[in-house]
Write a structure and sequence with these properties.
With about 130 residues, this protein is mostly helical. It has a domain of about 90 residues.
């Protein structure tokens, strides 16, 4: 079950309860999927790491991306996200969490997104188009 409510005045402690920090790890997909299904806004700290389905999902609509250099200011950065922006990100979490779920009986669409991503990669490869970000 995904909860999508955030208190009207979401301070640091309330934000951290609904934000899940994702440093670089080999289990990034599993951690991200679990946190999104719990209703957390992913705070991704992985420079130069292509995220799952990044070529077909609008990560800016459901996550906060930080660089390693931002770590000393993480508290200030998260406190700087307005309540309106945070609620908008939580709506994105609810909308896109099924992309990270494999079980179709609970609305999972990971298979569909995997095929879409592979198709896009194939077409880019065939066209000799290699986007960088």
């Amino acid at each position: 079950m995904i909860h999508s409510s955030v208190p009207k005045k979401a301070g640091w402690k309330a934000r951290m309860k609904t934000s899940c920090v994702h440093p670089s790890s080999a289990w990034q997909y599993t951690v991200k999927a679990g946190s999104m299904l719990s209703g957390c806004v992913p705070v991704i700290i992985q420079e130069h790491v292509f995220q799952p389905y990044e070529d077909v999902l609008p990560y800016e609509q459901f996550s906060i991306r930080l660089n390693n250099a931002d770590l000393p200011q993480i508290r200030e950065i998260l406190e700087g996200v307005t309540d309106e922006q945070y609620r908008w990100l939580l709506q994105g979490v609810v909308q896109f969490a099924p992309a990270f779920t494999w079980e179709p009986s609970v609305g999972g669409r990971a298979f569909n997104y995997t095929i879409a991503s592979l198709r896009r990669k194939y077409l880019n490869f065939k066209a000799e188009y290699y986007p960088t970000h």
